[in-house]
Each structure stands twice: as C-alpha cells, then as structure tokens.
Amino acid sequence: MATAPKIVALTAGGPHAWIMINTLQEHFGDFPIIREEGESQATLWRRRRKLLGPLTVASMQAARIPIKLTSKGSQDTIARLIAREKLEPEPRSGANLIEVPSVNSDQCRATLKSLDPKAVFVVSTRMISKKTLASIDAPFINYHSGINPAYRGMFGGYFALANGEPEHFGATVHLVDHGVDTGDILYQSRLRAEPEDNFHTYLWRMAAGSRDIVVRAMEDALNGSLRPQKVDLPSKQYFAPTLGGYLWSGLSRGVW
C-alpha cells in the first residue's frame, strides 16, 4: 500500500502561490498539488456588486485603468526580486498536479480523502466550504498576503500602506475556518516596502519575505505542535481600491 503524503496543497495557481508551494517542496520533498479552476472575472465582480453595491464596484473597476498604467515599469523590480531571492513563480517540471473544478467539488473532496494527508497547505483558492474542511481529519493552513485580522481579504499589503500603516505591511499564515481570513493565526511576517514598489510588486515582496513562516507552520502541523493564537487588532476585510481611494493614496502618500 502506498504511503499517504504528509502534505497536500490546494491552489488555483498564480506566482506567489507557486513561490510558496515550491519553497515547501524544496523543504519537504514532492507532494500532490490539487489545482482548482479559477473563478471567472464575471463571477467575481457579480459577487462584489451584490455585496458592495454597483457604484462602489464601478469605482473599483475604474481604478484598474491607472493601476494598469504602472504595470510596465514594475517588471524590472519583479525580475530583480526573482533573481536575488531565487523565487520560483511557476510550477516545477513534473509537478504532481491534480486538476479539479473547485476546492468545493465532490472530486476535490474525494481526492483529499484518498490522499489522506497530515496537513493541507492552502494558497490562492476561493472560499473553502465547511463540507470540504470537514472531509478529512487534517488542518487546512492558509498563506495570506496581509496582516490579519486588520487586513483580511485582498491586497492587504497595499491597503496597509495606503492607510498609513507600514508597520502592518506583511503576511499571515493561519488556520482556515468558515470566514474570510478569520482563522486563528500561526505566524506573521512584518516587512518593508521599497521605494520602487507599487501595486504590482507588493505581493512579490511579501512572498519573498514570508517563505520562512510558511515552512515553520507546516513543520508545526506535521509535528503536531501547532500553536494558534489571536492577534489584538481591529478586523476588516478589503476587496480592491476604488478610483478615488487609489488616486488619493498615490498623490498624498506616494502609494501606487
């Protein structure tokens, strides 16, 4: 009988997801990666309109225009980070990828049950349902690009800087529960953005500086020594910058 893997990863992919998964594979050896199909932009924006209202969402969509204008100038910064930090932002050749339609599909739950890991590493997926979380007896441990609970949701590093709180520029590794980045915290990284950074590079900067806390959390999970804790910060969920918010932060704080 084949030995069950100690770790399984759940992801929809993306550069910072592969950076973390490849770091774990460097440390723990190869393990299966369950990759879900990403949600469509139409589905994402439809859900935001229902939650936030059409005017706010229209402003978020408008902000994508000036944000996109800074993309080209960011590629050199990203390239330097990849080279200096030896980042691997793509799946490795020969990676054991298992494709599923969603982390909440019967196919994903059946795969998790058959693999029976000791711990599940989660990065860049949709919200995981109670049914999936209960499908196996193992902790689900998420990497989040923001300091929880103050910067739950999306673009936590950007919003920390935009709010004038550079001390909260960093990432969190936490247990997954039924909320949006509300699970008990395992480790956090506190990092510094560089003058050349912007909206496109913050995720890369945080990923480069947070690989160690991902390894430590998964080591704890495999050793049975997880130490979840609460952090005494106000709790707020973020989505995407609005046009007015993005321009104000850029002009007043130099945060683009």
TrEMBL record:
E.C. designation(s): 2.1.2.2
A single Gene Ontology CC term: cytosol
> Which Gene Ontology terms cover its molecular function?
phosphoribosylglycinamide formyltransferase activity
Q: Does the keyword Cell inner membrane apply?
A: no
A Pfam family assignment: Formyl_trans_N
Q: Mind listing the UniProt keywords for this protein, alphabetically?
A: Purine biosynthesis, Transferase
UniProt pathway: Purine metabolism; IMP biosynthesis via de novo pathway; N(2)-formyl-N(1)-(5-phospho-D-ribosyl)glycinamide from N(1)-(5-phospho-D-ribosyl)glycinamide (10-formyl THF route): step 1/1
Q: Where is the Formyl transferase N-terminal domain?
A: 103-216
One GO term under biological process is: 'de novo' IMP biosynthetic process
Q: What class of enzyme is it?
A: transferase
Superkingdom classification of source = Bacteria
Q: Does the keyword Hydrolase apply?
A: no
Name assigned to this protein: phosphoribosylglycinamide formyltransferase 1
Q: Could you read off the lineage of the organism from its UniProt record? A: Bacteria, Pseudomonadati, Pseudomonadota, Alphaproteobacteria, Hyphomonadales
